[in-house]
What we know:
This is Transglycosylase SLT domain-containing protein. It comes from Alteromonas aestuariivivens. This protein is mainly alpha-helical. The protein is built from 9 helices and 2 strands; from the N terminus they run H-H-H-H-E-E-H-H-H-H-H. The longest helix is centred in the last third of the chain and has 28 residues.
Amino acid sequence: xxxxxxxxxxxLSGCVVFLPALLSGCATxxxxxxxxxxxxxxxxxDWYDAAADVRDKWGVPIHVPMAMMxxxxxxxxxxxxxxxxxxxxxxxxxxxxxxxxYSQAKTPTWxxxxxxxxxxxxxxxxxxxxxxxxxxxxxKSHKINGVSKWDAYAQYLNYHEGWGGYRRQTYNQKPWLxxxxxxxxxxxxxYATQLKSCEEDLNKNWFWKLFS
Length: 212
């Protein structure tokens, strides 16, 4: 009887250790199909709730920050920028910037966001916080540089170059960046079209979904 009890105890303790790790992995893994916004939100319904909150809070259309986030991190929660190298490119030496997480927000800009919003517990590897940061940045780009919140192309240029860099048109010296911004725009338009086909369903609460 004692041996049987010990085996059960070991099994349960293993579950206690393993289950949180399993759930954590599911919570932070990228969507299986990131090409379709409906599939993203069906797989991760809490992401839709967070994106809808950002839409209501900052007046930002959902498809714009989602397209920008895909470009920045491919929805990897712990995404990092490329390594920097010294000594003729032979020795790795840190990262090329302090960008991190879903939004690839740099540390100084993230600190500005935390200070202005009072979201002191925010983490860059948390989807809700990351998309709220992007909503805040898009809102600020609209206020500072007059860029439409729906203009994914110009919003991405602001996001990459900063508000001052956008005003100085530094992106004109970076044809590759303008090409990337065009890709973000194209993805945002696809996401917008896809979302129209499923948003009504996504807006149903959990109770009604049981009977749909």
